[in-house]
Amino acid sequence: MRSLLVLALVGLGAQLVDGSLGMAYGVTSTTLLLAAGTNPAAASATVHLAEIGTTLVSGTAHWRFGNVDWRVVARIGLPGAAGAFAGATFLSWISTEVAGPLMALILLGLGTYVLARFTLAGLPSGNLDKPLRRRFLSPLGLVAGFVDATGGGGWGPVGTPAILASGRMEPRKVIGSIDTSEFLVAVAASIGFLTGLGGAGVDLAWAAALLAGGVVAAPIAAWLVRHLPPRVLGSAVGGLIILTNARTLLNSDWVEAPGAARYPLYAGVYLLWAGALAHSIREHRRESALAEKTAAQVKEGAAA
């Protein structure tokens, strides 16, 4: 009973982060299941079963708060489902020992770009509201879905920074569209796992506990992402991407950094992240005050 309660709390916290920053539910939940001794395929299957419910509730909440672009959902979600089914079906014999660090390195670069762009320049507006092409979204969805199924998480960490970096959508709609399209990925991955595993090793009670926590957090996260300033949200997402993938690289076979080297680096990333967030908050307040002053002057001029 205690383990189910812990899983529910993990599901709540993971969904709160995932729904407001566009990533981390699968990574957080899968990490816990692997630490408990679950084999990778069964861990990913359990998490994806829970995600069918959490993504449905999260997507509905994001839609109600106006955070969803349905064209993006269709263009990235359907290829993502195909990639997730393939990844789930072949997880038992496909090794991600090489692909994992390589993907983490790519995402680390994207995260650094997102953090720097939003922290130093704010929300990119030059390409804002320009359409995202199918030739960009379809391959992205295919890769993100495959990584998500084989790694137990990755739909958000791959999809969110790539779309954010394009500068064509505001952060809340990127996060809402990624979260909503993840429902298709979760369904396809679950079908693939059930086909490949036949349910072996999948703990339905654990999936239900993760689902319960996630369902509670989903509407809160969807409300939160609508009210967070885009500049601050972009810095938060960028920092999370850097932290997550720096940890993956430092613990990979490529690096195998000892604890004495890892922890100072983690501390440095946290300090960088905190500084970026503080700067973005200050700049947001300054820009808001300037916009209010300009609006007041315009109003006074019109009255005169």
From TrEMBL:
GO terms for cellular component: plasma membrane. Keywords: Cell membrane, Membrane, Transmembrane, Transmembrane helix. Belongs to the 4-toluene sulfonate uptake permease (TSUP) (TC 2.A.102) family. It is found in: Cell membrane; Membrane. This is Probable membrane transporter protein. The keyword Transmembrane helix applies. The chain crosses the membrane at residues 72-91, 98-116, 136-159, 180-198, 204-225, 232-251, 263-281.
